[in-house]
Structures are given as C-alpha cells and as structure tokens.
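job 3f2a | input accepted
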Amino acid sequence: MKQLLLVFVGGGFGSVLRYVIGKYLNSAENGIPYGTFAANILGSLLIGIILGLAAKNDALSQNQTLLLATGFCGGFTTFSTFAYENHVFLKSGDFMGFAVYTIASFVIGFLAVFAGIYFVK
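job 3f2a | predicted structure (121 res):
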C-alpha cells in the first residue's frame, strides 16, 4: 500500500508540473507543443539521472525510485498527449511539423536518458 501511495503522490506532482509547463510553453498561435516537448525531454533526462543513481551503489532506495521514476516521471512525461499532438499535425496537413516533432522527440529523448545516466557515473 505504501508503494502505491508513493507512485500516486509522485505522479500527482509530475502531472501538475507538466500542466504548468504546457500552459506556459505550448503555443496556441502556431500550434507547436513546446511544453509537451520540454516535459518529455526533461523527464527523459530526469529518469536517466534517477535510474542511474538507483543503479549506482544503490544510491536510491526502491521507495525513492518508485516515487521519483515511476511516479513523478510517469506523471510528468506523456505519450498520450504526444500522440494527440501528432494527430493534430497530420490532420492539419503539417507533415513537416509532424516529422520534426516526432523525430526530435525520440532522438533527443533517448539522448537525454543516456545523458542522465552518464551524468551520475
């Protein structure tokens, strides 16, 4: 039960922070979802750091890892919003925006995870 509560609390904080970032960074004028992109990249970096620390000499307990990686990063990053925003790009015929956003999200997201793990080594 304690583990469920840790994931719940971490996820709540992550979701609220993602909402705030999206509110201030997503652009209604040009439709570019900077906030979602920033949350996903920052979340990728954070999960790399968190899991890197967890693997390094057991620097984080299982409960801390659940709170931060599963809870916070799980609530902070979002695949469903990413998928919807890509749907909007495609529906509007913005194939270049779709391609750039999708490729940049994957490539930079992976690099951010690797960077996070590298930083803690």
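job 3f2a | The chain has five helices and no strands.
job 3f2a | closed
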